[in-house]
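Consider the following assembly input.
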Amino acid sequence: MSLSTHNLSVGYHDTAIVKQVDLTIPEGKIIALLGPNGCGKSTLLKAMARILSPMDGQVHWQGQNLHGIASKKLAQQLALLPQTQPIPEGIKVKDLVAYGRSPYTGFWGRISKEDHDIITQVMQETGITELAEQLVSELSGGQRQRVWLAMTLAQDTPYLLLDEPTTYMDLSHQVELMHLLRKLNLQGKTIITVLHDINQAARYCDHLIVMKKGKIVTQGSPDSVLTQRLLKEVFSLSAQIHQDPIAKTPMCVVE
Amino acid sequence: MATRSLPFLILAMIGLLIANLMFGAVSIPFKQILAGLQTGNEHYFTIHEYRLPRTILAMLVGAMMALAGALVQGVIRNPLASPDVLGVSHGAGLAAVFYMTFFPNADISWLPAVALVGSLVAALMLWWLCGSHSSTIKLAITGVALAALYASCIDFLMLVKPLEINNALLWLTGSLWGRGWNQLAMLLPWLLLIPFALWLAKPLNLIHLGDDSAISLGIKANKLRLASLAIAVGLTASCVAICGPIGFLGLVAPHLTRKLVGGRHQILLPATMLVGAILLLLADLVARTIDPPIELPAGIMTAIIGAPYFLWLLLRTK
């Protein structure tokens, strides 16, 4: 009940990309937003993170209109990791991660002991402790992605919104990230993530939301959602569904 | 490294303050500077009436222009942005030249007020064309186009009305010549903008991460941009009104400072003011002492350093 959309239409420059979507995010789960390019999954995520204002309809957080809630208070509830980030000049890794504590610090941004502990912890969890003194601009794409993730985690919110978090990461870091998301989920976080890899979503997520042309086509557990017909309809893909031999989750194999 | 640079910058500034009081057409020994502040002393006129207000003015104008540049670069997220680039300085210049051309007999003391109106109009023009929700790229490109438009209007007026324009020429290059306590008094109220600028240090750090992250961290991106640019316009307008457009200071000082102390605005903003003060004190010192008693405008000195720096910056920007 915490995060929901009501007849939500949202987009850019008067063109609606997400069209009249009603959605209630199931709390305490890892949710994947899936769909072909341009289907509106990132736009929907941004609307739920109040980056974009609705053209029509509303996004509710605990029954209240998202845009009516004090921005600092909301920043303690929802954190977004955007798809692309600018490369900040002259900022050290530890400083960037510390920026994640901004919703809790005073006007000058002074870091408390508690803030410092959280920063240390998220840097360990994301495996960037040894990068602390380096400049963000000098890191590789995959390292930078993990630093930004750490910054988002430092925000310490019950809801995490991630826009293609595995982009730029090599395979082992992708797997590490998905395991980290599972761990965070067990600690009680609700995680909503846009993913491209259907098998990754099926293996690590509890709930899949599939979109096409700005509408939600179907949603539910990976077992109930992933069918041959759906892949044909939504992705125009001829594929078979098999069982993952290790995780026992559905797995799509392209014909 | 970041905070360790601050004492050096403060020492450098104090050194230049003293040098600016000592050197000029006549050199005054260090020991006699304090004595020169007393009425009746042989150096009273040179020190108290001439060099002291001018030195303080150079320090303040340098600091304010650099701070304005840091605010603009902070929200535009482009190291090439500055009040010059946004057309604010040229707007002030055009208003002043217009005033001198069409009211040749009018009171010259109105010039600062006219320049102020010009820079505000230039800023509003930019805002009107771009709107409050515009992308930073659009803002920067529109600013460059407007600055070029104002500059060509100035050139046109100078070609059409060459006689009336002579007065404007010295002012247009940006100079501290002949500025004294009166101009300093005019600048003082604008110093109140500085605490407001420092208040923005934390949100400026976050807007540096992109609008999406900044909003997600609880920042109102559009409000911050408006506040930051408004303060920058106020700082620039007050400085341009008194000294004319001193080019490249707002561009070079913040960029240099970022290399020196990093990108955290809690340190960057105060350090930028120190670097700006140092640069303008140095520029004015060199301009006054290079070939006495003839003086060059300080604006020419900053342009000699600033223009190659700008080009270098432009070439290495991908």
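Chain B has 15 helices and no strands. Ask yourself how this observation constrains the way the partners meet.
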